[in-house]
Amino acid sequence: MALTKKGEFWYGTTSGDTQAELRSYSVANGHEAVRFAASKCDCGCRSFALQTDEESGVAIRTCTDCGQQHLMGDSAEHVEEAAPEAHECVCENEVFELMSGVSVYEGTHDVRWYYIACRCVECNLVGVFADWKCEAGDAAAFLAKL
Length: 146
Fold this sequence. Notes:
The protein has helices at 15-29, 139-143; strands spanning 4-6, 9-11, 35-38, 48-53, 58-63, 69-71, 85-86, 96-104, 111-120, 125-133. By secondary structure, it is mainly β.
């Protein structure tokens, strides 16, 4: 399915739709995401509750199947000073499929900006729910921790 706009929000049904919305948002933000990764729990589940603190640069996903919490990216380095808050969709659902994207510094593979896009598993709303400047080093290593 392609992204569909209903009112002021975008909706989609695939990870490709979520990635497309993330890319569009990142271009508008001036730091285009060029590398992407979908979150998947060790148990195989792909749906999560999400908490973030953009000021501290912390994201925590909680698996809806096994309950495992996972600090995303380099969040472990910043979690002690963070006050993460839960995300909720406009439909009041709190369960999402997550797609992360990063922009990199020109001529390098080093992360410059981090984006977390969500697709609501209830209503299919897609959007970037959090983003921040991120000095996390190698993009491949960073995205492997999502």
